[in-house]
Amino acid sequence: MPVLNEERHLEAAIRRVLDQDYPGELEVIIAVGPSSDRTPEIAAALSAVDPRIRVVDNPAARTPAALNLGIAASQHEIIVRVDGHGELTDGYIRRAVELLDETGAANVGGVMDAQGTTPFEEAVATAYTTRLGLGGSAFHLAESSAAEAETVFLGVFRKDALIAVGGFDESMHRAQDWELNYRLRTSGHRIWFSPELRVTYRPRSTLRALVRQMYETGTWRREVVRRYPETATARYLAPPLTLLGVLTGSVAGLLGVVVDSRLLRVGFLAPAGYLALIIGGSVATARPMSAAARLRLPLVLAATHLAWGAGFLVGRTPSQTQFDIMS
């Protein structure tokens, strides 16, 4: 479990691991980055009262470095990746280990079940789990069927397969899961998705945090495409193309007002059409949510799409890659 500034959710995440009904031996390795909150103290206190919990320092403060430190410190042949703001559901580890045996896969994973506690978090959770938001991948959609997959959320791995491909790429500060699963697949291993496996995920709680998350995700998705051009699918190109369309249409429309050109004013159809799409999608989505969350959903969808698209268009620079940290 890589953690940084996770005082709000860390204890609950650890409790859900320890409450699993897994019949074998279990250890929990928390890789703690230099946090500005009480995360290190909470991790140390949990470790002091339960010998199954071990804490390792992650001075680099980056997710892939934390994961590799945890793998190196581990004693067992199965590695379960856990998030500091996620909670495993009952039977997750036991069923995942069974699926490793049944499928022969190197990594199995399930549904990222985003759940919010405030109206804004509810709206973000909906955006994560609908096709109009981030719902293109099977692990975002509860109705997806068990099958081989490109990637899965978090994952339960065979340790020998992880070591064989070199572990997590520490130069990929985000999107490291997708990149690792790509290397596993190209090495001949299977990645298996099963909706039986569910992890409760706690989404970002403020607009600023969401925009930052999506912008960084977009920049790292651009880096994945740079390294592996064959992965540039329509789903990943949709956010930057949407942003370009909205910006181009808005500029053309404003110019049309200035120079009194009816043809250029047609450009306003692009942002108007996008606005209609996200409002209509927010009204039509079937996921249960409060009225306050539904009112916030168009803003959340727009922030998700446009920040992701902006990050993809801007991409990474060497200095950004050097100084980016886990968040």
Report what the structure shows.
By secondary structure, this protein is an alpha/beta fold. The protein has two domains: 2-205, Spore Coat Polysaccharide Biosynthesis Protein SpsA, Chain A; 227-316 and 319-323, no CATH class. Helices cover 51% and strands 14% of the residues. Strand 1 (2-3), helix 1 and strand 2 (28-32) form a beta-alpha-beta unit.
Offer a quick outline of the entry.
This protein is an alpha/beta fold and 327 residues long. It has 2 domains: 2-205, Spore Coat Polysaccharide Biosynthesis Protein SpsA, Chain A (Alpha-Beta Complex), CATH 3.90.550.10; 227-316 and 319-323, no CATH class. The protein has 13 helices and 9 strands.
List keywords for this structure.
Spore Coat Polysaccharide Biosynthesis Protein SpsA, Chain A; globular; single chain; 327 residues; three-stranded parallel β-sheet; alpha/beta; disordered C terminus; six-stranded mixed β-sheet; 13 helices
